[in-house]
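Internal ticket - ligand job 443, beta-D-fucopyranose:
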Amino acid sequence: MATGTMFFPSDFLWGTATAAHQVEGNNANNDWWQWEQGTGHILQEHRSGLACNWWENAEADLDKAAEMGTNAHRLSLEWSRIEPEPSRFDKNALERYRQILQAMHDRGIEPMVTLHHFTNPLWLVEKGDFGTAVVVDYFQRYTAKVVEVLGDLVPKWVTINEPLVYVFMRYLEGTFPAPQQKGWPAAGQALRNLLRCHAAAYHTIKERQPEAQVGVAKNLVIFAARPSQGTAARWWAKRLNWLYNEAWMEAMTNGRSRFPFGRGQIPHLAGSYDFIGINYYTRFYAKFPPLGGLLHEEWEPGAVVSDGNYGEVYPDGLFQVIKSVLRYDKPIYITENGVPDIKDEIRPSFILTHLREVWRAISFCFPVMGYYHWSLVDNFEWDRGWTQRFGLIAMNPETQERELRTSGQLYTEICQQNQISSEMVAKYAPQSSDILFPGKAPA
Ligand code: FCB
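stdout (structure tokens):
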């Protein structure tokens, strides 16, 4: 292996990411909690329960994040805590969020706050949530309240987390809490309402806090055709890419939704973002013809696949998705990237090889301003329960005991030194040295 160093800009944001329901514990007033009580919804009938106990003590993990040398963290607000009944805003819940946000500032950690990360208050579900246009006014009002109370502590906002994942899992796949109506027409309507909610939230924030940076966290995946397939399969993979990756970005840019069953102009949507948040995890092979599902679940020979068949490790894809959003000409944040790996066997190399792609992008002067690793600590992974562990810190949900993983030590060195060195690669992931520092060591 050659020796060398990949330097990052001095103002680069080194972060981690979490979401309210996955870490807070006892979020009993939302649709996920209710869904967890039913049978057959969550792998091994797991429940979020106390989760990582952040509602009581987020500070303990924030201490660790600060010790690691991170200077940013992405978290989300739980709407059902803030507005437990329509129009009743809970002062104590808002006060607790102020404490958590202040605790981050006190530790030199800049918050990025997501308004909607997969969960809904139960009262909103009764009203039909994203299946009906009434959601827009409710979302707007909730946003106005939290910006009024918390805005001075929040420089960066994410309105909606992964709209396409959310709609796909809930309206088509059925692995997320059931909406009042499922199927493609309902999915199209939900996407349209999510776009309207986003636009309403964007302007609500900017009116009250013009200096805030507002965006979405968009899950981007690589859709490929199987190498053995021909032109038609490649054409189909491109269509899926448009539908899943591009159509949302296009709509936010020009104000027009082209989603099937959700088409049309949306007032105040055009240009409603200041940055692009990319959540990147993996590459998928599109099924062609698309019979019995849209995606293959088997990988090509030689692929490195993470726990529970979650996905293939494909670092090149991160560079590709960064490149694909350059046309929008906005700052880019990697708002999520990580891997389920309870034994921490592939995570050190995963982190290094993915950060190499970020470094490469920065070397081309692509405006990547920060990286938020998913996740700081093992947490409740939605329909996969506690079976998948994404944390830099391992946590036992039965005892709440924590331990920094080896990959957490690596991330600490990277954040503290603001660089990746060949020494780190030799120490943590020698098997990836030829990818990271190709060539021979000087004689
Ligand atoms: C993303 C979600 C996040 C977490 C990671 C693993 O799709 O935004 O909450 O579940 O995947």
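Auto-summary: The chain is about 40% helix and 15% strand. Residues 184-208 form the longest helix (25 residues).
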